């Protein structure tokens, strides 16, 4: 069967469901009619299409003349730029509004209606606080020369005076912890079975033996699984430990997430899932974040923890040169402030661990040879020992004094790196405390040391086991003590990428590793968000209608919960990072894939109810789905038709192209009112050379050349395929390892503003290779470029010659851009990848990497499980208002068009075909939103919260920061801005907000804010959660 894709333009009304699309014979006639039609077709043809054709013509000419493929993307860029300059960039306004599709098309305003007050936020200059540290400045300052620091190899000699603690003793909090990766060398389930369950079981016994013992736990994914397997008696014992402060839950997320590749939607979701679990089962509210292993740290995570109501956080994996600098300045403890925060509302108290690792040798003080002797799991006769070849000794009456002197010396030296006399020392490592013996070894030996210290006042030390919040409590008391004004802590702004643990070992490869799964993650995210919103709306509608009629709410909620947890699990710092073993990667991939299928089921179930005109006709039959989300929609015979329901998961009215696959080329698309919709049938290519009636090939051969893919071998044969049409035109170029497609949409709307880029990459069969896409422009961007952090904020970057190549790569979660005084070029990405700008005007993005050997970071294997990976992007060129003497600033924001394009790229319209057996039931359009939300407000989620009383939902909104200095003419946007305010009564059209309460991000705390029952009010950049009841 020949497969054909059918792409057509759809105007999605508000959130949901234009019901359209019957498929008929006679497509060719439609297209012919369309182009000849006096009322719209000609204008369409003469307007944007001619520009498009012009571009493609020029492109072909260039290709033919120069025999250089590199021209094709540059040409598109130049063309776009010229058209921006002379004002031809946007669609011919109004040309479709009078066309034959009255219920589909709305004319976007020529100039985006932006409230001028909404432009002030991004126009603000950055002002550094008095005791402020800006990380971009630190990078300028440091030489990154890595001299040998002695026993503290990456630091310096630390000295102290014996009497420094005479007036105020050293307070030591030893914090036992066990780092449990939810998948790395083993799968989540295997780790649980072999290690984690034993750790938690022993914890209950061993903490109960002595009330002075403490423990912290972070990964709720493991904790929840264990909880399901223990009896009530043990659960009560755990609750007592929590109440007595012996066990502290830190962060409380489903996992300890990666902070480079993770999108803020998923970061929030996994935190919410963990916190909801804790609230329901343990009744605790985490106070302190604990992140010892993510490979670099993002201020986004600090912001999210702050919004969730946490007070403190700890980070560990920071570039060794930065650590050394912070240690020398005593800025390892600071208030982490968002770059964009003009005041102090985002300040988060943060502790940065000073040394190389979170294991015992690198946490008691600067000398690992000494500290290792206080890891009593390494006592002689055990399975682990000290690589410095001096083993620990059991503490006895005979040696206690000498051992205390040794340990106290380390404690005192470490303390010299901080401003207060309160010291935190972690005690743990990966999967520690599995056996009862280890608990005894650590806790009994340390208790002897502490007893000695505490009973000798001349030592001026008070040492104890503590949780991390015990420590922060003491720190706050000491630092905020009015008598200690000189101890005030500094304010730090910026991020901690790219991480290096030693020498030139920069951890930038994981920004790209296993890109197939990074893309799969983003697809699951958009499915989850789409399903959550539809399910919440369906549930509210059913409750309103008063008769559920067998709607599968329990089953759907179960599938949603499973998907939340699978997505959450994948945010783990060895999961989305691509740093696990092959079999673990397969386990994650299977979970992601199953959840995508299950979420389609949830969407189909929910949509079924919502679009049915006569709700009395509703019946749920699990074996015969009313709606289908198969890849190919089958039309059984000539003149048959099928209805397709389009779900717009975004919060704005939207004109976008939808792609569906059908089994015949003879198709026409109509609206539900029988008005034809512009559509284009094109071939689906099984491989580069399978012939098609709609496309032709240009064959190039001969000279070797280096294309903008960094393939360091000659490309011997290149296939080029051109598709032209009324809806879109594209050029596909096929190389040995890459199929590269450039696509232009001829639609009036956001999709028509950008060049779409798809790279299908296959480097199987290569050895130790990375494939990159390089965009070359004539922008005078110098050494500056910009990448986003977690899809939430923009971090300005600087390419530095003093750093090695791999250090100049940064994570690109959703976008990267270059700019000069007149133009900005933005690459929007539908997956996380590593990017850099190695030369002025250039932007490179790594597409895939294949490593034949281990990198000595514990994995014990290379990366050889590469898959054919499809990476998607959009390229935007925008005119910038000239600013003279533009100083480098730590602040930058995308344009509104860029924000919305990114939203569309990550959340495409979702087509569902109505089952052929559904008969003649009539369908209705469903538009839950009274109107588009303001352009700058994104509905992050509408997530059902199940409770015994009545189902509620968490409405999570984000007000984006955007730059008005980029041209907002002809953007195709169908929304406005309103200074961050939404009238709640005007939010939904056929549902009412029964109640709305501002709560913390994960619903654990009530919050005070600008919002009320009547009006939601968000500050720029703010993410806020509202507990809502829809009735
Ligand atoms: Zn880890």
Task: Kindly list the characteristics that best describe this protein.
10-stranded antiparallel beta sheet, 1031 residues, 23% strand, 28% helix, 19 helices, binds zinc ion
Explain this structure:
With 1031 residues, the chain is an alpha+beta fold. It is 28% helix and 23% strand. The strands form ten sheets. It has a ten-stranded antiparallel beta sheet, sandwiched between helices. The protein is globular. The two termini are 48 Å apart. Residues 9-53, 62-105 and 691-716 have low confidence and may be disordered. Zinc ion (ZN) is lined by residues 179, 181, 293, 573-574.
For the report, how would you describe the main beta sheet?
10 strands, antiparallel
Q: Which outline best applies?
A: globular
Radius of gyration: 30 Å
Oligomeric grouping of the chains? single chain
Bound molecules: zinc ion
Strand segment tally: 42
The residue ranges in which pLDDT falls below 50 over 5 or more consecutive positions are 9-53, 62-105, 691-716
Distance, first to last CA: 48 Å
Spatially, the strands of the biggest sheet line up as 22-23-24-25-26-35-32-31-28-29
The number of helices is: 19
Average residue-wise pLDDT: 84
Helicity range? 25-40%
Structural category is alpha+beta
Q: Report the sheet-strand fraction.
A: 15-25%
Task: State the gist of this model.
The protein is α+β, with helices and mostly antiparallel strands and 1031 residues long.
């Amino acid at each position: 069967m020949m497969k054909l894709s059918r792409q057509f333009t759809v105007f999605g009304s508000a959130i949901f469901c234009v019901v359209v699309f019957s498929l008929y014979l006679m497509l060719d006639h439609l297209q012919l009619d369309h182009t000849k039609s006096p009322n719209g077709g000609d204008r369409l043809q003469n307007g944007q299409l001619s520009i498009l054709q012009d571009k493609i013509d020029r492109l072909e000419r260039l290709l033919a003349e120069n025999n250089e493929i590199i021209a094709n993307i540059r040409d598109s860029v130049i063309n776009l730029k010229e058209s921006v300059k002379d004002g031809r960039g946007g669609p011919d306004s109004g040309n479709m509004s009078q066309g034959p599709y009255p219920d589909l098309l709305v004319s976007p305003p020529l100039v985006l209606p932006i409230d001028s007050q909404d432009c002030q936020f991004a126009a603000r200059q950055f002002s550094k606080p008095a005791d402020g540290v800006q990380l971009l400045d630190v990078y300028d300052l440091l030489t990154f020369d890595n001299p040998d620091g002695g026993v503290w190899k990456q630091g310096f000699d630390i000295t102290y005076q014996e009497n420094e603690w005479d007036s105020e003793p050293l307070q030591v909090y030893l914090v036992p912890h066990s780092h449990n990766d939810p998948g790395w060398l083993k799968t989540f389930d295997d780790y649980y079975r072999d290690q984690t369950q034993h750790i938690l079981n022993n914890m209950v016994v061993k903490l109960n033996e002595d009330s002075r013992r403490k423990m912290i736990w972070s990964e709720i994914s493991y904790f929840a699984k264990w909880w399901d397997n223990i009896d009530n008696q043990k659960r009560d014992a755990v609750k007592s430990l929590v109440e007595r402060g012996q066990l502290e839950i830190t962060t409380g997320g489903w996992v300890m997430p990666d902070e480079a590749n993770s999108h803020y939607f998923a970061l929030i979701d996994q935190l919410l899932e963990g916190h909801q679990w804790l609230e329901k089962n343990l009744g605790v509210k985490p106070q302190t974040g604990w992140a010892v292993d993510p490979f670099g740290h993002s201020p986004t995570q600090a912001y999210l923890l702050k919004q969730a109501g946490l007070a403190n956080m700890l980070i560990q994996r920071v570039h060794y040169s930065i650590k050394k600098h912070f240690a020398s300045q005593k800025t390892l403890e600071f208030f982490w402030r968002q770059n964009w925060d003009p005041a102090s509302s985002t300040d988060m108290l943060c502790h940065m661990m000073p040394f190389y690792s979170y294991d015992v040798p690198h946490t008691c003080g600067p000398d690992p040879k000494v500290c290792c002797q206080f890891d009593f799991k390494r006592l002689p006769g055990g399975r682990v020992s000290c690589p410095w070849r001096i083993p620990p000794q059991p503490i006895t009456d005979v040696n206690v004094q000498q051992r205390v002197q040794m340990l106290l010396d380390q404690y005192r030296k470490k303390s010299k790196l901080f401003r207060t006399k309160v010291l935190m020392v972690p005690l743990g490592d990966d999967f520690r405390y599995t056996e009862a013996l280890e608990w005894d070894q650590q806790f009994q030996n340390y208790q002897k040391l502490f007893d000695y210290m505490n009973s000798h006042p001349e030592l001026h030390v008070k040492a104890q086991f503590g949780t991390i919040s015990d420590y922060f409590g003491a720190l706050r008391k000491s630092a905020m003590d009015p008598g200690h004004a000189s101890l005030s802590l500094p304010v730090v702004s910026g991020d901690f990428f790219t991480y290096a643990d030693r020498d030139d070992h920069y951890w930038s490869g994981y920004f790209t590793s296993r890109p197939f799964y990074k893309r799969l993650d983003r697809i699951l995210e958009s499915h989850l968000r789409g399903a959550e919103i539809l399910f919440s709306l369906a549930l509210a509608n059913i409750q309103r209608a008063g008769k559920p009629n067998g709607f599968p709410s329990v089953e759907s909620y179960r599938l949603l919960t499973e998907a939340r947890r699978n997505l959450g699990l994948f945010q783990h710092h060895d999961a989305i990072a691509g740093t696990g073993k092959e079999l673990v990667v397969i386990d994650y991939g299977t979970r992601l894939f199953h959840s995508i299928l299950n979420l389609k089921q949830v969407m189909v179930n929910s949509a079924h109810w919502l679009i049915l005109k006569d709700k009395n006709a509703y019946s749920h039959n699990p074996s015969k789905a009313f709606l289908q989300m198969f890849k190919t929609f089958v039309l059984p015979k000539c003149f048959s038709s099928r209805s397709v329901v389009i779900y717009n998961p975004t919060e704005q009215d939207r004109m976008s192209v939808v792609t569906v696959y059908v089994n015949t080329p003879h198709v026409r698309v109509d609206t539900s009112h029988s008005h034809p919709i512009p559509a284009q049938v094109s071939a689906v290519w099984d491989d580069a050379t399978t012939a098609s009636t709609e496309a032709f090939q240009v064959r190039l051969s001969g000279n070797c050349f280096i294309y903008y893919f960094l393939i360091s071998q000659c490309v011997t044969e290149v296939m080029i395929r051109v598709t032209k049409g009324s809806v879109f035109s594209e050029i596909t170029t096929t190389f040995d390892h890459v199929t590269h497609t450039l696509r232009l949409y001829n639609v009036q709307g956001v999709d028509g503003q950008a060049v779409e880029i798809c790279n299908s990459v296959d480097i199987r069969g290569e050895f130790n290779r990375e494939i990159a896409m390089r965009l070359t422009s004539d922008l005078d961007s110098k050494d500056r470029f910009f990448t986003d952090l977690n899809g939430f904020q923009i971090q300005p970057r600087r390419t530095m010659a003093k750093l090695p190549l791999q250090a100049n790569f940064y994570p690109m979660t959703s976008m990267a851009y270059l700019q000069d005084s007149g133009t900005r070029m933005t690459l929007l990405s539908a997956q996380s990848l590593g990017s850099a700008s190695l030369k002025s005007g250039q932007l490179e993005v790594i597409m895939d990497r294949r490593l034949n050997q281990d990198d000595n970071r514990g994995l014990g294997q290379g990366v050889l499980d590469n898959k054919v990976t499809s990476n998607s992007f959009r390229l935007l060129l925008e005119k910038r208002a000239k600013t003279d003497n533009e100083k480098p600033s730590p602040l930058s924001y995308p344009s509104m068009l860029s924000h919305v394009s990114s939203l569309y790229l990550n959340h495409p319209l979702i087509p569902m075909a109505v089952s052929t057996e559904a008969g003649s039931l009539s369908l209705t359009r469903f538009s839950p939103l009274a109107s588009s939300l303001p352009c700058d407000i994104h509905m992050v989620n509408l997530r059902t919260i199940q409770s015994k009383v009545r189902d509620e939902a968490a409405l999570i909104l984000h007000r984006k920061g955007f730059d008005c200095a980029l041209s907002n003419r002809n953007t195709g946007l169908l929304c406005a801005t309103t200074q961050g305010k939404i009238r709640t009564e005007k939010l939904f059209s056929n549902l009412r907000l029964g109640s709305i309460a501002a709560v913390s991000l994960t619903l654990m705390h009530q919050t005070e804010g600008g919002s009320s029952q009547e009006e939601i009010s968000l500050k720029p950049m703010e993410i806020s959660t509202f507990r809502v009841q829809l009735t």
